[in-house]
Amino acid sequence: MNDDQLIDAARAAAQTSYSPYSGFAVGAALLFEDGSVVTGTNIENASYGLALCAETVAVSKAMADGVRGGLKAVAVTGPGDEPITPCGRCRQVLNELAQLGGTDPEILCVGPKLVKRIKLSVLLPEAFGPASLT
After folding, report:
1. Of 12, 74, 86, 126, which sits most exposed with the smallest number of CB within 10 A?
2. Of the residues 33, 44, 55, 96, which is catalytic?
3. What single string gives the DSSP state of each residue in 73-121?
4. pLDDT of 35-94, one tens digit each?
């Protein structure tokens, strides 16, 4: 799968967003080393603090299916004129999955005209993860 296909998967996921409060539909697509892709979208809640981000939903789906590691790349899309990056919570959740496989995935932060490519380790330097507990 190439980057454009991964971005298209994230954009398709954003189409099913449940974001009635913010109107900020986000989609995420996770690419694994075996070529599989898992997508997620944000799901808001009337109790705002209970909202789920697209990246967290995608990681949860992958983990629920038994995927542990092998995270190669992540595409994140949203509305607006600028590329968006995962929030701090999502960076930590992505880091957990990445550390389980010893990877440092490239994060494609997608805007309508620009894609910023950033390694997860740059977005979350000196991250706390499973290896921190040993």
Report:
1. 126
2. 55
3. EEEEE-SSSS-----HHHHHHHHHHHHHHT---EEEEE-SS-EEEEEHH
4. 999 999 999 999 999 999 999 999 999 999 999 989 999 999 999 899 999 999 999 999
